[in-house]
Amino acid sequence: MPLHPQVSAVLAAAPAREAVSDDALPRLRAALAGGAAAFSGPGTEVAKVSDVDADGVPVRLYLPGDTPALVVFLHGGGWVNGGGLDTYDPLCRYLAALSGAAVAAVDYRLAPEHPYPAAFEDVDTAVLWLRRTGAAEFGLDPRRVAVVGDSAGGHLAAVTARRWRDVGAGFTSQVLIYPVVDPSTPGKDPAAFPVPPDLAAVQLADGRYCWDRFAPEGYDRAHPDLSPLAADLAGLPPALVVTAEYDVLRAEGEAYAHALAEAGVPTVSVCYQGQTHDFLRGLAVFDAARAAVAQVAATLRAELA
């Protein structure tokens, strides 16, 4: 279908965005944080929200009630931009309220100040803390834990699910929202994607910058931690993979879902028509955002029951 009218309206009203660069990054980070309220809304009330120190990693824990199930949430932003915990606060609140599970948003370190593998180190530290100290302190069940991430956070979630499987402490479920899984995508021609050329060009340019700052020259991007499609995927937890029709990441997300299914992993892949990248945060502007979060929440509620 064509771009959804709501998406077209938001794109048309948005001011011209500065191209991502080292000089522009502080301003882009501030803009993401500053625009969160208008894009995502005020957020849903939940019973308790706690900012905790997970052995040096900032984590915001959303507790919708007396539930022992836990969702580890890893935000997007190309590994270089997250806007802080406040940017994803409305989304995490809504996800906790609908799923009935505690949601732990991990504020991992960002590139280029902290390139790969810093983000993975922080995620692992936070997960270990949540499954031990956090579980005891907040009454969580360390055996009923899902991992969820969007965009670059989807990449972190996919790899984290595999890394913890490898040490015998796998997750119950994984949800990957327009995940980054193929380092070669940003080098492709914008015309190769069923996305308006100007939009594809911006998305690909962002991708090139983000990959170059997260895993600079000298890193082996064929390593499974950087290229999840290269990994052995058998035995991973059930997966929901969400993509957007007008997103250059759609093809790689769908390819990863197919690879999971081929490896015997129970997998559902869904593409939201008329939507573009980062639509899930747009709770205040996109009907599809609330529908998608509801689908994610229903999946988590079923898998973590």
Query: Roughly what is the average pLDDT, rounded to an integer?
Result: 96
Q: How many structural domains can be distinguished in the coordinates?
A: 1
**CATH topology heading:** Rossmann fold
SS field, number of helical segments: 9
Class inferred from helices and paired strands: alpha/beta
Cα gyration radius (Å): 18 Å
First and last CA, distance: 36 Å
Task: Report helical residue fraction.
Answer: 25-40%
Class, according to the CATH hierarchy?
Alpha Beta
| Run of helices and strands | HHHEEEHEHEHEHEHEH
What form results from the Cα inertia axes? globular
Strand percent estimate: 15-25%
Low-pLDDT parts are none
Q: Can you count the beta strands? A: 8
Shape-level CATH architecture: 3-Layer(aba) Sandwich
Major sheet: arrangement of strands: 1-2-4-3-5-6-7-8
For the biggest sheet, the summary is:
8 strands, mixed
CATH superfamily: Alpha/Beta hydrolase fold, catalytic domain
Oligomeric status: single chain
Short structural summary:
This protein is of the alpha/beta class and 305 residues long.
Protein described:
By secondary structure, this protein is α/β, with parallel strands linked by helices. The chain has a single domain (5-303), classed as Alpha/Beta hydrolase fold, catalytic domain (Rossmann fold), CATH 3.40.50. Helices cover 39% and strands 17% of the residues. It has 9 helices and 8 strands. An 8-stranded mixed beta sheet has the order 1-2-4-3-5-6-7-8, with helices on both faces. Helix 4 (89-99) packs across helix 9 (287-303). The relative contact order is 0.16.
